[in-house]
Specification:
mainly alpha, two-stranded parallel sheet, 2 strands, 6 helices
């Protein structure tokens, strides 16, 4: 999930600007039932701090179902090889993505009752087929 603020904070101090922008982005992410694990990897924030923040922001309010599309870093890189213009995140190195991937996988292991792991290294047709039973059970 990606979020973008269209209304920039109007303040003179750069630190205040950063605080306001970060708060807005995090509240958007939580309001949509997602977790800002990618953002936390960028700033190096420990995942346990995320869990504390989640409990404070929305206590026991969690999604009923989270589809976790997992793909090994090497396969993702191979698929991106044909993309001529990589964005800022796509330009990150393997350890960054592995840290993010492991954080999501750990979250799935911690909450197996609501996470469904989808092997996204398969073809689009195979991924779609693996989604069919999950979707039909809703």
């Amino acid at each position: 999930m990606l979020t973008t603020d269209f209304f920039m904070p109007i303040v003179d101090d750069a630190r205040d600007f950063g605080r306001i922008a970060a708060t807005n982005a995090l509240s958007d992410v939580y309001a949509m039932g997602a977790s800002p694990i990618m953002a936390l990897a960028v700033v190096g924030m420990p995942v346990d701090k995320l869990e504390q923040l989640e409990r404070w922001v929305h206590a026991d309010f969690q999604p009923d179902l989270t589809l976790l599309f997992d793909i090994p870093i090497a396969v993702a890189r191979q698929r991106l090889a044909s993309n001529v213009s990589l964005d800022r995140f796509e330009q990150e190195q393997g350890p960054f993505f592995e840290k993010v991937r492991q954080a999501y996988l750990n979250r799935g292991r911690k909450h197996p009752e609501r996470f469904v792991l989808i092997d996204a290294s398969k073809t689009p047709e195979e991924v779609k087929a693996s989604l069919a039973p999950v979707i039909s059970s809703l």
